[in-house]
Design goal:
DNA/RNA-bd_Kin17_WH-like_dom, alpha+beta, 352 residues, 5-stranded antiparallel β-sheet, Arc Repressor Mutant, subunit A, zinc-finger, zinc, zinc ion binding
């Protein structure tokens, strides 16, 4: 059957059907394909590509389920962290935000049968704080980043000192009077011993801080060496989950020229399955396989997250802190340890 004429009633109906989420019962997780109705799903089940994926599932079923489970867990926790921070929110609200993405991992492909069992698993694992009341299950993200832990330790230390100060102010006169009445003058030997004890404690603390600083520097050095070793520029750069721009004027008669899309899958290193976003006239998103030579990276606004696709730090996520126009580079801060590096425009791209 030929394609419906653009603008016709049939074409409008097809666009409406393709927009948004489809029915779960007609979705194939192994092939990541959404069918519109039972007939389409039945035809898909007999296709060669589906049968091939089913054979893979039979050979390594548990591994496939584990991979889907891990990806679903990471997507849920990341959505909770990004959109709600450490606020207490309804677990189902977060789940609805996760499944709003057409390409999300469905829960029936994971090891959890219900959202309740999944939330309880997160609580036992220690990823989130889980509570239940009459309105349902609530979750709260636990921030274990290095900066947050340091800040928390500093606040606890300041709180302890403040508490000691208040206690001292409340009973200062009584304690001082009693101590003055009962205290015995220290002998010269006692005074020397006390000074030596304080000096030893101070030296031990300084040595401990020095060892921690050396360990942190060694860790940073090891990470830099690893990045330098891994960061040799390759002749391929596409990464899943980045935003790219089409630069081939001849592709589809220039239909996709300068249009942006998202790399959904990397195909044999040098090509990618790209989801081209529809235009403002209501055109639906389309997926095409494009060679990396037909694409270029996208430099976002300062403050947005990016992915380093080539060179030093390849594969790591970062935040764009400054655009160096004269040098055609961007200054980024790596999320793993906060290292600041300057990266060529073609070596990083906006994260979707």
């Amino acid at each position: 059957m030929g394609k419906a004429e653009k603008g016709s009633a049939k074409d409008i109906a097809n666009r409406a059907k393709a927009r948004g989420l489809g029915k779960l019962q007609f979705y194939c997780q192994m092939c990541a394909k959404q069918c519109r109705d039972a007939n389409g799903f039945k035809c898909h089940q007999t296709s060669a590509s589906h049968l091939k994926m089913m054979s893979i599932l039979r050979d390594s079923g548990q591994k496939v389920v584990d991979d889907f489970s891990q990806e679903f867990e990471e997507s849920y926790v990341e959505t909770l962290r990004r959109r709600h921070g450490v606020k207490r929110v309804n677990a189902n609200n977060v789940y609805q935000e996760v499944i709003a993405d057409k390409h999300h991992i469905h829960m029936n492909a994971t090891q959890w049968e219900t959202l309740t069992s999944f939330v309880q698993y997160l609580g036992k694992k220690g990823s989130v704080i889980v509570e239940e009341d009459e309105r349902g299950w609530f979750v709260q993200y636990i921030d274990r980043s290095e900066g947050t832990l340091k800040k928390r330790a500093m606040l606890e230390e300041m709180g302890g000192e403040e508490k000691k100060t208040k206690v001292g102010e409340g009973g200062a006169q009584t304690t001082t009077t009693a101590a003055a009445a009962n205290a015995k003058p220290m002998s010269a030997l006692d005074r020397i011993m006390e000074e030596n004890r304080l000096k030893k404690a101070k030296d031990e603390e300084a040595a401990r801080l020095k060892e921690e600083a050396a360990a942190q520097e060694e860790d940073r050095k090891r990470r830099r060496e690893k990045r330098e070793k891994k960061g040799k520029k390759k002749d391929y750069w596409l990464k899943k989950g980045i935003v790219v721009k089409v630069v081939n004027k001849k592709l589809e008669g220039g239909k996709f020229y300068k249009r942006k899309g998202v790399v959904r899958e990397v195909v044999e290193k040098y090509a990618g399955r790209v989801e081209i976003k529809g235009d403002d006239e209501g055109e639906e998103d389309v997926e095409v396989i494009l060679d990396q030579d037909d694409l270029e990276t996208v430099v976002p606004k300062v403050g947005k997250e990016v992915v380093i696709v080539n060179g030093y730090g390849r594969g790591e996520e970062a935040v764009l802190t400054e655009i160096l126009e004269k040098e055609f580079k961007g200054r980024v801060k790596l999320l793993e340890d906060g290292e600041i590096v300057d990266v060529d425009y073609e070596c990083f791209s906006k994260k979707y």
